[in-house]
Amino acid sequence: MAKTGIWSKPGDKILPGVYSKIESIVNSYGDGLIGTIGVPVKANWGPIGEVVTLENNINKLIDMFGNDTEEKYSAFKIGALLTKTNLKYIKFYRLADESAKQSTINLQNTNESAVEVIKLTSKYATSKDLNVTIKNSLVNTSSNEMYVYEGSKLLAKITGIKGTCDEMVDVINNAHDNKYLIASKIAETSDPLAPISNKKLAGGNDGCTSVNNEMYIKSLDQFERTQIDGFVLDGKEDESLDASVFDWIKKNYESGRIISYFSGIGKSEDISSAFTKAKKINNKLYTLVASAGVLDDIQYTPSETAAYLCGVEISNKLRESSCNKKVIFTDVKKVFTTEELEEAQKVGVLTLDIDDGDVVIVDDVNTYKTYSENNKKDSVFGFNRSIRTLKAINTMLVSAGKQIIGKVDNDPEFGYDIVISLFKRGFEALIADGAIKEFEVEIDKELQAVAENDEIYIRWYVTRSDKVKKIYSKGTIR
Residue 371: is it exposed, middle or buried by C-beta count within 10 angstroms (0-12/13-18/19+)? Predict the structure, then answer.
């Protein structure tokens, strides 16, 4: 498998691969990514300890992770915000401690010496109020009907439960409506099941009581195995965890994976603390949110607001900017002064403001705002739109390069032409998609002159265009 990553000096890589060094982007843009976001969450339903990919749909979210709104659960609260963005996929990892446990109930038959014959187990570890009712069928008294409830809400109706124990188990497990229970055989029987009414499953636990930072960090290993464009926490506020996550983001960047990380200040912090933190971080992959959005009388924390804004940003088309973009919130907890907004812009803190009654993103800034005089061209990377373009180009280069590694002879007559041609086709595809408008790609003659026999150095240039963000007018009234 060809490796990817960032190269610092010629010949510094050992393994075969496609290595990039993107110094700057100048002038022009087009269509962009349909993003995928990764979030570790706490929930009362769903698989534990694995990354689950959801299409961006509220019903699919509820089916997989529930719609529990208690404060200790974050999956539905964060997920509901993300479904209001243009993300294509949402990737959740359910966190849980060792107390997580599935709930169960044993069903008896109607034999004179009734015995337990079938065990029902909740599909996932949960403390949900799951209960079942078993009735004899009105059409066939040797057949049962099962009704599955959460509290008093009917979740599923299963009919035609009859025959041997194995046959009844098969009917229950393969019922179209049954997304909640797993049946297993305890003992052989050919008798119908004994009727019960709203009998609760017992022994379940959601596993949320002792979720800690170590469990969040463990989730990163799983997210590293999948493709994501952005990453957020589920509203968890912890400086140590935040630092660990961002170390992981930077490690991935060195391996050629560009992931934008959005975080928020603590709910008890003011914007001045955001200024201090942004200056300290000063990195293009880290976006710090100071605003707290309000929607449907729910006041979200800056960290929860950051999750939504990450979804907005990475699901933008490349030609789109989040500058002055209207968002779903109807209000903000605090309206910042002009002076505070200006300072936020300077140091790279993302804020929301109210414009003619609409809540809008002031600008698509990240924390990368301090650079040396010699690196002023890097200022373009202080805006998230540029990071999305960077990722699109890097993805194309890696995809094109993997078709070459180990397959093409490294010679000036034919090998170089094949490599250049393939990269050109990649850039042309980006032009066709509207991602870029102009490019140049060629062999870097200076570096190629001293390259090893198995190395090729490519030099490319891409142009982009800025959006209008400031308009100055001058006029006279007579």
Answer: middle
Task: Please give the model's pTM, rounded to 2 decimal places.
Answer: 0.87
Distance CA 430, CA 460 (A): 14
Check if the beta carbon of residue 188 is closer than 8 Å to that of residue 165. yes
Structure tokens at 141: 């008294």
Query: pLDDT per residue over 122-142, tens digit each?
Result: 999 999 999 999 999 888 878
* Residue 380, Ramachandran bin (φ over 0: left; ψ between -120 and 50: alpha; else beta): alpha
Task: Count CA within 13 A, CB hemisphere, residue 372.
Answer: 2
Tell me how far CA of residue 200 lies from CA of 104, 131, 149, in angstroms: 8, 4, 9
Query: What does the DSSP assignment read for 87-136?
Result: -SEEEEEEE--TT-B--EEEEEB-STT--EEEEEEESS-----EEEEEEE
Instruction: Report the alpha-carbon distance of residue 234 to residue 74 in Å, rounded.
Output: 6
Q: Are 264 and 290 in contact (CB under 8 A)?
A: yes
Which amino acid does the sequence have at 209?
Answer: T
118 forms beta bridges with 107, 185
Partnered with residue 36 across adjacent β-strands are: 89
How far apart are alpha carbons 345 and 315 in whole angstroms?
Answer: 22
Q: Which amino acid is at 460?
A: W
Residue positions counted in the chain: 478
Q: Are 60 and 46 in contact (CB under 8 A)?
A: no
Q: Which amino acid is at 95?
A: L
Q: How far apart are CA 205 and CA 447, in angstroms?
A: 60
Cα 11 to its chain centre, rounded Å, is 35
Alpha helices per DSSP H over 255-287: 271-281
User: How large is the greatest C-alpha to C-alpha distance in the chain, in angstroms?
Assistant: 103
Strands 458-464 and 153-161: unpaired
Instruction: Enter the tokens of residue 170.
Output: 């098969």
375-425 pLDDT, tens digit each: 767 788 899 988 988 888 888 888 777 777 777 777 777 778 888 888 888
- What confidence tens digit (pLDDT) does each residue in 276-287 have? 999 999 999 999
- Look at strands 293-295 and 298-299 and give their pairing: antiparallel
Strands 260-264 and 286-289: parallel
Domains and CATH numbers, the chain: 3-30+407-464 (no CATH), 36-96+210-361 (3.40.50.11780), 104-200 (2.60.40.4290)
**Which residues have CB under 8 Å from 59's CB, separation 6+?**
none
The C-alpha atoms of residue 218 and residue 195 are separated, in whole angstroms, by: 45
Q: 440-449: which pairs have CB atoms within 8 A and are 24 or more residues apart?
A: 443/416, 447/10
| Identity of residue 381 | F
- For residues 156 and 173, the answer to whether their CB atoms sit within 8 Å is no
